[in-house]
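Reviewers of the previous submission asked for a worked example of the structure-prediction workflow described in the proposal, so we include one complete record here. The input consisted solely of the amino acid sequence. No template or homolog information was supplied to the procedure at any stage.
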Amino acid sequence: MRYTADCKFILKATDIRIAFYQLDFLQWMQLSLELERLIIQAINPPYNVKISARD
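From that input alone, the workflow returned the following structure tokens.
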């Protein structure tokens, strides 16, 4: 991975790794629920989150 002048990074194919881990049904359900919670929280943040003012 390297950074450009405007501080964006560039990924190369060699920077990416994929790992596999076998889950049983209960582990899969727990992971699914946790991922769902994180996605919902990212889409609909809690009421007390400060939103920056627009110019």
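The two ends are 34 Å apart (CA to CA). We consider this example representative of the routine output the project will generate in years two and three.
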